[in-house]
Amino acid sequence: MRSPRFPLLVALLVVVAAAYWYFHSQRAPNGETIAVYHTKLDGTSLGSMRVSMRPRAPGESAAEHRHNQVLYAAVEAVTGPPSDVNAIRFPPGTHVRSVAIDGSTATVDLSKEVETQTGGSFGENGEFKALVYTVTSLPGIDAVQVTVDGSRLETLPGGHLELDQPLRRSDW
Amino acid sequence: MNLTNRFAAPIGSLTAAAVFAVVGAAPARADAPLTVVYQGQSIRFSHIDSKGGAPAIGVNDPGFATLLRSTSSLLTWKPGERYVLITTSVPTVVSFAIGDRRYDIGPIVLQAAFAPYQRGSEAFLPLNEVLRGLDLALRDDGATKVLQPQLASLEVRTLRDRVTLLAHGGAPLRPRVIAQSSSSVTYAFDGVGTALIGTRQINAGGVRSVQVTVSGTVRAPVTTVIVALQPGASARPPQNNGERDVVLAVSAARASPQSLAEESPTPEPEPSGANNAGNASDANATANGPATVTSVTSQASDAGVTVTVAVNGNASFAWHRLRDPDNRFWIDVKNAQLQGPPIDQASASPVISMRARQIDATTVRIALTLGQPNTITVTPSSNGLQIQVGNDAVSDDAARSGSGTIGSVVSSGEQNPVPVTPAPADNAPSDAGTSDGGWKFGPRSSYVPTNPRLIVIDPGHGGSDSGSEHGSLKEADLALDMAKRLRDILVARGWQVKLTRETDVDVYAPNDSPHDELQARVDVANKAGARLFVSIHANAFINSGPYGTTCYISKPEDVPLARNVEAQLAQDGTKDDGVVKSHLYVTYHTRMPAVLVETAFLTNPSDYALLASAAWRQKVAQEIADGIGQYTRAYPVSNQAGQ
After folding, report:
1. Kind plus residue range of the DSSP H or E element containing A161
2. Which CATH architecture best describes the domain B451-640?
3. Distance of alpha carbon A137 from alpha carbon A163, whole angstroms
4. Which of A23, A91, B479, B515 has the greatest number of beta carbons closer than 10 A?
C-alpha cells in the first residue's frame, strides 16, 4: 500500500515549484549591460552610462532578440544622457524610426530632425561617434549605416560627415 | 568625492490605489474612459483596460498621444514588436517589453504591476508605471482625476565644501526663495506635488538637513524644500530658467582667506610666443594652453617595458604607486586632453596591463598594473615622458609618489599642488573604446602628386549653402576670407595655389546635393594632382559653450600634416582642441594629405570676437601657412607617400 504521505509530498512539491516560479518571475532579470556613450563637450572624448539589456524571452528568436537589442541601444544613444550631463546631442526631436540588421551592419533610420544641424563638424562628429560606439558595443555589430527618413544620404545638408557608407569605430 | 543620495519616489503605490477606486466598479475588465486634468487641460483616455486591478493604457489612445505631446515625449513601437520605448524630455528612455513585467527607466530596472500585452494591433502598458516614467502622478480632486507633475527626485550631491541639490520635476521647475535667514533657506516649487515628503540629514558642504513638504491644492500644489544651513554657509540664488532640472547650491563657510587665493591663482607669466586673448571665462586654461596626450605606447625589451607618453604642449604630472602586493602605478598628466579613445591593453611582462583615459575634464591618467613590485623610473622631456619599468624589485624606501612638468613652462595651477588621493588607479567605470588603442586606419595610399607645388585650399560652404550663420557673420564668408589670406601667403612663398571657389558660389551648382558639392571640391584637388588639400571652416554648436580650434582628418597620411598645422594653430588665441579623426567627406575622399580646419566657434562669444577680427583671420592664415611649411620641409614629396 502507498504511503498516506505521498499526496502530501506531491502537494508540497507543487507548492515549492509554484513558489520558485513566483519568486523567479518577480525578480527583475539582471541581464547583460551595455555602455550608452555620449560625446563630451571637448568634441572627442566619450562618457558612458550603462543600461541593462533584457535577456532573450521565450518565443523570441535570436534574430528578433538582436533586432530588439539594436533598437534599444540606438534609441538610448540618440536620446543621450539626462540634461544635467554636458554632452553633444542630436538636434531636438531626432528619433530612431527603425533599425535593421544585415550581417554585422546595423542600419539605424533617423527622423528628419537630424538634418536641422547647426552647421559645424563638431556636432555631427560627436553625435554619430556616440551612436556608432553605442550600437557597436553589441556583440556581432561592427558597423552602423545611418539613413534619414528611410533614405540613404551622402551627407547631411550642409554637412561634413559622410553617411553613404557604414560608419565604424575605426572612423574615429 | 561625489556622494549621491537620491530620495526614493514611491509614486506608483499611491496612484494605483487612486485608480483602482475608479476601475474597481467593473471587476472583470474596465474599459470605461478615464478623464484627467493635466496642466488645466482635460484629457480623455478611452483605450483603458485593466489587469489585476491596475489600469492599462493603449498606445493608440488619442488622449495618451496628447499627453505624450504635452510632455514632449515620444513613443516608439510597431505592432508585432516586443519593445515599447518612451523617450521623455529628461531625456531618458522608459522601456517596456510585451510579456515582461520588467520596465526600465534609463539605467534603473523596475518591476511593473503587470506585463504589457498586445491586443489586436495595440499594445497596452501599465498606466501607473508610464506616469511614473513621465514624472506624473494621478491624484483625486473630489470626483476629478488630476495628473499632477511631481518633484520626482532631489539628488543631493556633496562636493567637498559645497552641496548641490539637483531637483528634477515632471514640469518646468521655477523655484522661488520664500524665506531666507542665516540658518535656513526655503524654496517653493509651484505647481508640483511630490512623494518625497520628509527630512534628510546631510551634515556636509554647509547643509545640515533638507526637509520636503507639500501644501496647496491637488490642482495647484506647492512643494516646499527647506534647506537648513550649517553656520557660515550660504545659498546661491536658484536657477530659474524654466527647465525640468534645477540646481540649488549651497557653499560651506570659507575656511580662511588662503582657500580663496587657491581658487584663483595668479597666472604665471606667459610662455614665449603664447597669446592669451582667449576665452575670458577660462582664461587660466587658455593661457596655459591645454596639452594633448597624443599617444601612449609600450615597448618591451630585455631591460623591461618602456611606456612612452607623447604630450603636445605644456603639462604637469604626478605619479603614485601602491605597495606590494597591490602593484599598481598611475601617473596623472594634468591640464591635458587624451587624443583618441581610451586605451586598455595587455602588456608584456613585467607589466600586466596598461590603461590610459581622461579621468576628468583636464586630467589624463595612465595606469599600469605590474606583476611584481619592480622599479619604475619616470623621465619627463619637452614632448612627453617615458616610464621605464625595470626587471628588478623596488627597494622598500623608494619614493611612492612624485611630480614634475612636461614642456617648457610650469602650469600656474600647480603652485599649490592639490594632494592627489592615493585612490586605486582604476576605480572609475571603464570608458569608451577600450579595445581601440588609438586611431586605426585603412591601408596607406601610394599617392604621388603630379603637381607637387600645388596646394588646393577649400573655403567651406558658399553660394546656396552659407554654412553656419551667427550674428552678422556667415561661415562661407569667413572661410573664403581666410582661404584668400592663406593663398596670398603661400603664393608669396612660391607655392601654386588653387581655391575650390573664389567667390560666394557653390562649387558644383546652386542647391545641389551635399554629396555633389563636396565631391566637386574633392575633384578639384584629385584631378589637379595637388600636393595638399586644406579645407577651412568655422564651427558651431547648439549652445555657446564649446570653443576652440580643431583639425579634422580621416586618412593616415593626413596625420603629420594636421599635427604640423595644429602645432602652429595652438597659438591662435583660442583653445587647441587638437587633431580629431572623423569620417568627413572631403578629408576622406581626397587622395593627398588633407586637413579640415574648424578655426573657431561662431556660437561662442569670445571665439566669435576672434572670427570677427580681420587681424585674427590673418594670424590664422599665417599659422596654417607656417604649419604647411613645417610639414613640407619635414616630409618632402619623395617621402610623402610613405609618411
Report:
1. none
2. 3-Layer(aba) Sandwich (3.40)
3. 20
4. B479
Considering only CB atoms, B546 lies closest to which of A41, A50, A84, namely A41
Chain B environment of A142 (Cβ under 8 Å): none
Distance from C-alpha of B562 to C-alpha of B597, rounded to nearest angstrom: 9
Q: How far is B194 from chain A (nearest CA, A)?
A: 20
Judge whether B80 is closer than 8 Å to chain A, CB to CB. Answer: no
Chain A residues in contact with B542 by the CB 8 A cut-off are 89, 91, 118, 123
Task: Summarize pLDDT for B63-108 with one digit per residue, the tens.
Answer: 999 999 999 899 999 998 999 999 998 889 999 999 999 999 988 8
- Contact criterion met (CB below 8 Å) for B540 and A123: yes
First to last CA, chain B: 45
Any idea what DSSP says for residue B428?
S
Judge residue B641's burial from the number of C-beta atoms within 10 Å of its C-beta, 0-12 exposed, 13-18 middle, 19 or more buried: middle
Q: How far apart are CA A131 and CA A121, in angstroms?
A: 16
Q: Do A51 and B104 touch (CB under 8 A)?
A: yes
CATH number of the structural domain B286-414: 2.60.40.3500
Domain boundaries, chain B: 3-146, 150-251, 286-414, 451-640
Domains B286-414 and B451-640 share a fold: no
What CATH topology corresponds to B150-251?
A: Immunoglobulin-like (2.60.40)
pLDDT tens figures, B167-191: 888 888 899 999 999 899 999 999 9
Q: CB distance B106–A82 less than 8 Å? A: yes
